[in-house]
Prior knowledge:
By secondary structure, this protein is α/β, with parallel strands linked by helices. The protein folds into two domains: 1-30; 31-203, Rossmann fold. Helix content is 44%, strand content 13%. It is built from eight helices and six strands, in the order H-E-H-H-E-H-E-H-E-H-H-E-H-E. The protein has a six-stranded mixed sheet with strand order 3-2-1-4-5-6, with helices on both faces. It is globular, with a radius of gyration of 17 Å. The two termini are 30 Å apart. 35% of the residues are buried.
Amino acid sequence: MEWLLIVVSLTVIWVASLCKVLHESLSGSKATFLDDGRGSLKRNVLLVIAHPDDESMFFAPTINYLTSKGHNVHILCMSTGNADGMGDTRKQELYLAAATLKVSPQQVNILDHPDLQDGFGKIWNSDLLAGIVKEEVDGHSIDVVISFDNYGVSGHCNHCDVHRENCCRILHTKMLKHGSLSALIYCANTLDQSISGCLSYMQSSIQTDKCISL
Length: 214
C-alpha cells in the first residue's frame, strides 16, 4: 500500500508540474531568470554540484537555458563520484555531458580532494567547500553561483553539504571580508528542475547569510 501511495503522489506532482509548464507556454510567459529584458547582459555562471551526473539529472534544463541565452557557464564538481570505484569513468562522462550541453570541457573542474570523497555518511566540511567555491568565483570572475536546494533532490548527504547553510554563510563571509560580494548565490528548486524543467530559483539572503530554497 505504501508504494502505491508513493506512485500516486509522484504522479500528482508530475501532472501538476506539467500543467504549470503548459499553462506558462500557452500564456506566452517566458523564463526571466538572469534576463534583463534586452538579452544584452551576459553573465559568468558557476554551477556547483557534488558528483558527475548531477549536471544531467538535476540541472540540464538550467544549463540549456543559460547557454541558449549566451551566458558563460562553468561547472565545479566537488568529487569524481568514486564511491563504487568508477570515478575515472564518471569524470569522462561528465566531460561528454558538458560538451553535449554546450559547456566547454575547459570550463569543467572536477575535484578529487581526499576530504571530499563520494559516499553516504561522509560529511564534507563547509569551510573547505566555501573556500573552493570562492577560489573558483575569483578565478573566473563569476557573477552568479547556482547549486542545490537544502534537500539536494534525493537527500544525498553530499548534495546537502554542497548547499548547507554553513557553506553559504561562510562563502558570504569570505566575500564580504574581501570588500564586496562578487557573486550572487542562487539555490535551485531542483524538484521542479528534474520533473518539469522549470527555472525556479531564489536568491540567497545577504542579510541573514542563508541560502533559501523555494
